[in-house]
Every structure is written in C-alpha cells, then in structure tokens.
C-alpha cells in the first residue's frame, strides 16, 4: 500500500508543536469559559410553539389583551365526601387574604363543583414577573391556602403560574447532576477499558473542557443569534459531546497504541495514528453534524434548538479530539499507558483475540449469521405494535409535582376541559357572532366572554373531552372551522388543547421531512468515504433495521415495564436521528478499516481482520455511548428518559449484533461486490503497511 507522508502531522505534535497546541487550547478554552456567559432563555410563549401554528398566533395576540399580561395561580380545594361549611368559610377567607398578592388587587369568588367536593379559586399574578419573584408569589399563595385549612381538606396550586414554578423547581440543579453523572460514567468506563490509573484522565479532561466550551458557544448564540434553548436541550447537547467525543478519543487512542508497537518515536506514532483515524472520525462527525443541521427545517422550535446546539457540540468535540487530545497524549509519553504500556515490536494481541474468533465464525457461515441477525431484529421490531404517540401536559414528567396533582383533581370534578380551556380571539366587532358560532360546535360545554380592547376580544371555551385525546383534537378542528367561517372575524383558536394539536401536526410534518434527509446525508457521507454504492446502501439499510428493532423494543419496555402511556411527540424523530447518525459511526470505523485491510488480504479476510482490530474499541465505544445516553434518565422529563432508553439500547444492539455479526456476514456474502464500483486494491502497491512489516518481521 502507498505510504502516506506524515511529516506535517509529526511536526504538529512534535517536541515543540505539542506544547504550542496545549497552550493554545488552554488560552482559547479559558477565553471561552470566561467570556461565554449564561444562556438567554426566551420568555416569549409564542417562541416555544411550532412555526406558523395558529396557537402561536393566539399567544402573540394575547399579549395585546389585559389578560395576556397575567399568569393565574389556580388554587384547587378538595375533600373526599364534600367540602364542609368550615372548609367553605376558610376558602372565602383565603379569597380575601389573597387579594394582597393578586395583580389588580382582586380575586374572583370561588367556583364549586356540582358535587361540592372541589372548589377553584383563581389568583391572577403578573406574567412578566421574573422567575424568582413568581416563585416567591406562588410560595406565598400556597402558604396562605394551607394556613387555617381544616383537617382533612387539601389545597393544591396549579395553573400557568404553578406549572412554571414547579417545572423550574424540578430542573433546578438537574443539569449539574446530569454533568456529574455523565462524567462519572465516562470516567468509570474509561478506567475499565484502559486499566490504567491515569490514562483515562486525559480524554475525560479534554472532552470535559470541550463540553463546557460548547455550552458557552451556545450561550453566546442565544444572546446574539436568537437561538432558543431550554434545560433539556442543554442536557442533550452535553450528552452528545461526551458520547461522541469519547468515541472519537477511543478510536484515536486505539490507533495510537497500535502505532506505538511499530514506532520508537511517540510523535511519529501519533502522526500516523491521526493520519489513519482522522478520515473515519471526520466522516463520523460530519454525518452527525449534518444530520443535526437538518433539524433547522423542523417546525418545532425545541427540535430546531437541539439540532443547532447539538451540531455545535459535535463540531467542538471533534476539534478537541483531533487537535487537542493528540498533543495532550504525546505530552506524557508511553508511561501514560502503564501498567500495559505498548512496546516497539510487540505483537498486536487483538489480531488473535476474541473478535478475531467472532469474525472467523461469521465468515464461515455468513448466510446463517445473516438469517439469525435479521430474525432477531424483526422480532424486536414487533414490539412496536399498539404504538401511541403524544403525552398530555400532565403526563410529561416522571415526578408528580403539585401543579400536576392539582390539575388532575380539577379535571375529576369539572368538565375535562375546564383545567385547560381553549382561548378564542377575534375582532371585537364580531365577538358576539364568533362566540355564538363556537357555542354550537359539538363537544363545547360553554363559551365564556373575556376581556377585550377596541381591536380584539377574547373568550374561553371549555371542551367536554379530556385534553390530548382524539376527541379533543376533533373538537379543536371543528371549532376552528366554525369560527374561521365567520366573515371579517379573523378568529383564531389557541390554548393548551390547541397547542397539543399543533405540536402533533408539526411533529408529523417534521418526521416526513427530516427522516429522509437524515438518511440522504448518511448515504452521501458513506458514498464519499467508501466510494462504493453497494457498501453505502447496505450499511444504511442495517442502521434502519437497527432503529426499527430498537424502537419496537423501547416501546414494549415503556408499555409493559415503565408504564408510560405513550411516546412523546419528538421521541420518534430524535431517537431516529441519534441512532442513525451515531450508529453509523461504528459501521464507518469497521468499513474504513475493512477497506484498508481488503487492499492486501481481499474482502473476506479483510473484514475478519478489521473486526479483530476494531472490535474491542468499538465495543467499548458502544457501551460507553449507551451508558451516556441512559444518563438522560436523571432528568425528570419522560421525553428524555424515552430517548435515552431507545438510543442506549439501539447503540448496544448496533455494537453487539449489527456491527459484529450482520455487517461482516453481509460483506462476506457479497465479497468484492461490496465495494462496487470501487476497488480497495486500486492504486495499492506491494509495499506493506508499518504494522504488516512489524508482523512479518516477527519470528
């Protein structure tokens, strides 16, 4: 094979270059950490809604009405068997006391359920209050409601103010916990992988700094470019940086250790390691980055935020993995690998290890191995039966906070839609006609006129159906059709039930648009890297099969083990993207090495050797990535738990079955046709690679 010139790479990590790279990295990282600042959170309610959604229009119009400046805290009083006269007297007293906290100094009279067991008291609070002030106001409302309440009665605060405060409390410190757990998991797995008391510190330190630098870049963009992020977006970005960055580090260190068995000079060994690992790492990172960038086409702002923030994280991770990590590793010499430091001329144990035996077994019975692998994937995919997608607002958290419990109490006592009424806004001149049209829609319980200005009028619409159900979605569509038909009214329908519908429709559109684009990106990267149509198509089909199996197994676990009622809307798209884009990494690592080996040994022996020498590092990378994604479960959102489980299981499945058995079996069956129309031996010379020379020299 033609020997690559590595003089440029050697100079970069030579005796002087390594110090320059480390110092430059310290300076750049220090400036980013010092000047990056904190992420700006967008408080505009319309910014969190799908692009072009009618509910987003309502959210913006609400800001022009007096009620749009308020965030009511709903106090829900209840007692099994009915509220007593003493309870009612206490509630009336609360209504008088809470006027001191209410915006405008007025609290409407309490509303009682038909059975008399639940009462609702609405305390209007200023929606523009900073979170700390709103938290203090809700705390005082809860204290006042609980004070003097007769024994046996309950008071729960829910509504927009309660939800906002409780959600913030649930996430308080969660990202710090996520970072700590992620770093601990990575440290433990690196320690087990390398069995060295200090080697693991270098990749962990470099990727940890990359994670913080990526977070600061994202923070700057939230303030200067309008990037919208939330705590879950930052958590996913951190997981991507640690997972992908550590994968790249594992591949680089494996190639470096391999070259240290050939070269006395560690600088030359690192130059060759980077030269051989860089194409696979760059192809892998480009795949993930481009796949994430396709999310900017999504209608959902949350999905767009994850796409941009995640792409920034991956680019940062690969820069640190290929530019900073090599310099840091060379800095410490061979002793960094103690007590298993590689020595020049030492044989590579991987070529005769367990993965070599696995590869040999697969190559002897490729048809059987293909059949068994496909059968396993198909059985796992059957778990998708009965799939339900879409969680209501009260179903999205693993912890049942007070706001959720209060809304459930309210929903049991009043019409199901009372806790979350629809918001109907129209031109003030046509308000009465619009309200009359709305009241005639099947499924509408009542229409209550609200505040108005000279231009716009608001009404609240209560549905009979429970929010998030098909009946509620049908009622929202019917209501929109009815009010849209009123001439000159320019009526629009929003509120949480309408938001649920708009988000579901947006998620469906995003899946139909983005999923094919992600597959196209992966296919193009593989074509450019492997120069083979057959190889690219085959590898894409294997990751699709892996996703289908993981998705089916994940839904089976959620339904039968976790008791989740449904998948969240964004889970199918995000889990597909992460599994396809990240799962293809291992196929890239294997296929690039197989192509390299096939040039000298032929396709059949080449894939066996590739599996032997990459099996250990890819398995370690897969286990680590799966563990990192499972860490998303420490955050309280069911969405993140579901993504973590599906992607974590999928990565393990990809590592253990697809990459280790199915792909080698398919390559063996196809033979040299796997590389069509390319030829891995094209341009090769009889000259052996340094590793081959060293092996040939062994007695």
Automatic annotation (TrEMBL):
It comes from the Bacteria. Keywords: Cell membrane, Membrane, Transmembrane, Transmembrane helix. GO terms for cellular component: plasma membrane. InterPro entries: MMPL_dom (IPR004869), Mycobact_MmpL (IPR050545), SSD (IPR000731). It is found in: Cell membrane. The keyword Membrane applies. This is MMPL family transporter. The lineage of its organism: Bacteria, Bacillati, Actinomycetota, Actinomycetes, Streptosporangiales.
């Amino acid at each position: 094979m033609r020997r690559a010139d590595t003089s440029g790479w050697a100079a970069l990590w030579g005796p002087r270059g390594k110090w320059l790279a480390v110092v430059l990295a310290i300076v750049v990282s220090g400036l980013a950490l010092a000047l990056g600042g904190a992420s700006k959170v967008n408080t505009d309610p319309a910014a969190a809604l799908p692009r072009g959604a009618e509910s987003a229009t309502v959210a913006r119009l609400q800001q022009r009405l007096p009620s749009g400046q308020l965030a009511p805290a709903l106090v829900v009083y209840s007692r099994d068997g009915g509220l007593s006269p003493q309870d009612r007297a206490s509630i009336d007293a609360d209504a008088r006391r809470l006027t001191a906290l209410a915006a405008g100094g007025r609290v409407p009279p309490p509303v009682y359920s038909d059975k008399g067991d639940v009462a609702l008291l609405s305390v209007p609070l200023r929606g523009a209050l900073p979170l700390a002030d709103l938290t203090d106001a809700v705390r005082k409302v809860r204290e006042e409601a609980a004070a003097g309440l007769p024994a046996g009665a309950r008071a729960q605060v829910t509504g927009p103010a309660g939800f906002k405060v409780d959600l913030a409390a649930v996430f308080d410190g969660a990202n710090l916990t996520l970072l700590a757990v992620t770093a601990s998991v990575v440290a433990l797995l690196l320690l087990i992988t390398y069995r060295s008391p200090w080697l693991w510190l270098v990749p962990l330190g470099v990727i940890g700094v990359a994670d913080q630098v990526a977070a600061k870049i994202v923070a700057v963009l939230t303030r200067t470019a309008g990037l919208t992020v939330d705590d879950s977006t930052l958590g996913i970005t951190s997981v991507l940086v640690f997972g992908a960055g550590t994968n790249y580090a594992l591949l680089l260190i494996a190639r470096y250790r391999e070259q240290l068995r050939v070269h006395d000079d560690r600088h030359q060994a690192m130059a060759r390691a980077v030269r051989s690992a860089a194409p696979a790492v760059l192809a892998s990172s480009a795949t993930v980055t481009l796949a994430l960038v396709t999310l900017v086409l999504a209608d959902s702002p949350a999905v767009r935020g994850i796409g941009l923030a995640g792409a920034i994280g991956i680019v940062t991770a690969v820069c640190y993995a290929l530019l900073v990590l090599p310099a840091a590793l060379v800095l410490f010499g061979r002793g960094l690998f103690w007590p298993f430091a590689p020595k020049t001329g030492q044989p590579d144990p991987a070529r005769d290890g367990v993965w070599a035996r696995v590869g040999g077994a697969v190559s002897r019975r490729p048809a059987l191995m293909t059949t068994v692998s496909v059968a396993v994937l198909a059985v796992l995919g059957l778990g998708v039966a009965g799939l339900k997608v879409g969680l209501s607002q009260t179903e999205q958290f693993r912890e049942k906070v007070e706001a959720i419990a209060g809304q459930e109490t309210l929903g049991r006592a009043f019409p199901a839609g009372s806790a979350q009424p629809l918001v109907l806004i129209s031109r003030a001149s046509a308000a009465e006609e619009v309200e009359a049209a709305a009241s005639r829609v099947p499924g509408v319980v009542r229409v209550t006129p609200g505040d108005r200005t000279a231009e716009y009028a608001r009404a609240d619409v209560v549905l009979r159906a429970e929010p998030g159900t098909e009946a509620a979605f049908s009622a929202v569509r019917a209501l929109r059709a009815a009010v849209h038909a009123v001439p000159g009214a320019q009526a629009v329908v929003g509120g949480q039930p309408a938001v649920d519908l708009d988000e579901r429709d947006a998620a469906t559109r995003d899946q139909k648009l983005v999923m094919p684009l992600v597959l196209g990106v992966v296919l193009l990267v593989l074509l450019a890297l492997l120069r083979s149509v057959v190889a690219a198509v085959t590898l894409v089909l294997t990751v699709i099969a892996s996703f289908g199996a993981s998705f089916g197994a994940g839904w089976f676990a959620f339904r039968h083990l976790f008791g989740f009622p449904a998948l969240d809307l964004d889970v199918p798209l995000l889990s597909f993207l992460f599994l396809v884009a990240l799962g293809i990494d291992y196929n890239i690592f294997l296929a690039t090495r197989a192509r390299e080996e096939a040039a000298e040994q032929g396709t059949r022996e080449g894939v066996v050797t590739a599996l032997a020498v990459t099996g250990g590092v890819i398995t370690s990378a897969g286990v680590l990535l799966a563990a990192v994604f499972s860490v998303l479960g420490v955050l309280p959102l069911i969405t993140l738990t579901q993504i973590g489980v599906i992607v974590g299981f999928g990565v393990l499945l990809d590592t253990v079955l697809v990459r280790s058995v199915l792909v080698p079996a398919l390559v063996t069956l196809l033979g040299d046709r796997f590389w069509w129309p390319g030829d891995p031996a094209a341009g090769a010379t009889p000259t052996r690679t340094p590793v081959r020379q060293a092996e040939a020299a062994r007695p």
